[in-house]
Amino acid sequence: MYFIALATDYDGTLAHDGTVSNKTLAALERFKKSGRKLLLVTGRELPDLKRVFPDVGLFDKVVAENGALIYTPASEEERAISPSPEPEFVARLKKQGVKPLSVGRSIVATWEPHQATVLEVIKKMGLELEIIFNKGAVMILPSGVNKATGLAAALEDLHLSPHNVVGIGDAENDHAFLKACGCSVAVDNAIPAVKSTADLVTRGARGKGVEELIAKLIKSDHGIVPKRHGGIVLGSSGGDDIYLSPTESVLIAGSSGIGKSTLATALTERFVDSQFQFCVFDPEGDYDGLEGAVRLGDASSAPTKAQVLDLIAKADSNVVVNGLALRVNERPDFFADLLPDLGSFRRRTARPHWLVIDEAHHLLPKRRDDTRAVLSLELPGTILITVHPEAISTDALRLMTAVIALGPKAKDVVKTFCHETGIEPPKDIPTPKGDRVLFWRPGARKKLTTVKVIEPRQSLKRHSRKYAEGQLDETGSFYFRGPDDAMNLRAHNLMIFAQMAEGIDDKTWEFHLRAGDYSKWFRHQIRDKDLARETAEAEKDSKLSADESRKRVLDAVRRRYTAPATAPEA
Q: Angle CA(269)–CA(452)–CA(456) in degrees, nearest 5?
């Protein structure tokens, strides 16, 4: 489920003349049984609400007094989130003949045409109060308190995000909270201003409109709104924006070093802009320093499941789970242990809205025979990033609703995906040129398109920790062999490389130096052109002694990679 909760106004929306029909009550009960939450957002004072609506216990939270009071029916706890009215203010209103006049825990309420008198008293007393209208009702509250602020407080109690809430209302005072919801709905009897700004308008009025909305949510959930609604812009094609919905599952694949992590970084920036919570699984340390996120784990300490779940429970926390300290063969076990609990949390809260799983072939490998058991029936809001789509669990690949293929082998990515999932490959696969990528939704029966993708605002120091302290595979490692392959010393990261370089004999050092092996490794495996260029200069300088060349190369390595994390970049 994506829409986890329904937030509804009372008068004129849920109720007709203050009463909720049995059919509407039955619809609310069906909604609750579907595993979702109910929130009532009303301008009424709590005692009055309880009097007219004895079934208030159906709701998980009640936002009363137009946002000033939070009530939990299950525990009967009441929590005022704004100060009480000043007695002198109330006394002056009474003296001015303002009646009827109702005073709640925070709200003061009357009816038109008393708003002019109320405003005059507020000005004379110099109070920070504001007037909110509701179909003739005049509600006075502390400045900044409204249904939206009350809803935000109630959702925080429930660990839910406004993105996953559908709000429905009818009047002026509903504008704020409807705008805050992931989907806003107006009942047919709503005032024109509410209808004009709502995402959807029901055919039915009042309770019948609520019943209609509940039926659609139970049947279609996020399908009640277009894909681009609440989506993230991937890029543009033919002048049109291309969106990724937080209900989609996306494969990003292509050859090494052609921008997969860069694209993922740009997407996380859009998540932050839209206040979508995200969690990045980062086996190689590629996302250290990612803006708007907290890192768990580093090259020397592995993250724990408890740490990940505790941090994700905080709705305003984005997380990068750094797996550098985990060996390659430990990563699938770690992820398999975490995913069921993470999936359970997402089913309850729909958070984090996006999971970004880099090096997905490490975390969801095809070779494991229990992947199906740790996967839920779907992976909504999930991005799998890989160089090797053929090495990812087939069960995981079959859950993908969109494919983004980058680089010169983009066509091969699409063909591999189709081969692994048993899907008929599309005809006439275009070749992406320049900064464009292939984009395809396999189930949409649409042709592949080329998309100019968004660029990130930040520049990550990509791979620095991975290459400095991580565990490069056998192909990516450097081997000190020396003349005649007299030795076979493997350096699986730059720190080990530096330690070995200092310990080997001059003959072995110079053998690789004169062959240009160091600059080749830095250029092709470490993918650092600047380091390779500086090293190549030392390799070509025949006047340098073994010690001098060794010092120059190792100084360049340490300056870029093994300096303290707080040191400035070269």
A: 25
The answer to whether the beta carbons of residues 430 and 450 sit under 8 Å apart is yes
Q: Rounded distance, CA 377 to CA 526, Å?
A: 38
Q: How confident is the model at residue 425 (pLDDT cuts 50, 70, 90)?
A: confident
Q: Do 149 and 135 belong to one domain?
A: no
- Position 569 scores a pLDDT of 36
* 92-106 mean pLDDT: 88
What's at 12, amino acid-wise? G
Mapping DSSP to helix (H, G, I), strand (E, B) and coil, where does residue 242 land? strand
The reply to whether 295 and 183 lie within a common domain is: no
**Residue where the block lists tokens 């303002």:** 98
pLDDT band at residue 559 using 50, 70 and 90 as cut-offs: confident
497/187 Cα distance (integer angstroms):
68
pLDDT tens-digit readout, 439-487: 999 977 668 899 999 988 876 554 556 677 767 778 789 999 999 888 8
Q: Which residues pair with 192 in a beta bridge?
A: none
> Mind giving me the DSSP string for 251-262?
EEEESTTSSHHH
Q: Does 170 fall in a domain? A: yes
Output the CA–CA distances (angstroms, integers) from residue 219 to 72, 200, 401, in the order listed. 28, 16, 20
Three-state secondary structure readout of 150-219? HHHHHHHHHCCCHHHEEEEECCHHHHHHHHHCCEEEECCCCCHHHHHHCCEECCCCHHHHHHHHHHHHHH
In single-letter form, the type of residue at position 362 comes to H
Q: Is residue 459 in some structural domain?
A: no
Supply the range of the domain harboring residue 96: 83-144
What are the DSSP E strand ranges found in 441-522?
449-453, 478-480, 489-491
Q: Are residues 168 and 294 part of one domain?
A: no
Task: Decide if pLDDT at 32 tops 90.
Answer: yes
Residue of 496, 530, 536 lying closest to 518 (CA atoms): 536
The predicted model scores a pTM of 0.77
Q: How far apart are CA 161 and CA 143, in angstroms?
A: 24
Task: Say what angle helices 87-95 and 115-125 make with each other, to 10 degrees.
Answer: 130
Whether 88 contacts 125, CB under 8 Å: yes
135 and 156: one domain? no
What's the pLDDT at 336?
Answer: 85
Structure-token pair, residue 45: 């004072």
In a domain, 570, yes or no: no
Q: Which two tokens stand for residue 339?
A: 């995913």
Show the beta-strand stretches assigned E in 415-484: 436-440, 449-453, 478-480
How many angstroms separate the CA atoms of 161 and 400, rounded? 24
Res 506: pLDDT? 93
Q: Are 119 and 73 in the same domain?
A: no
| pLDDT (0 to 100) of residue 568 | 34
244 and 311 in a common domain? yes
The confidence score (pLDDT) of residue 460 equals 57
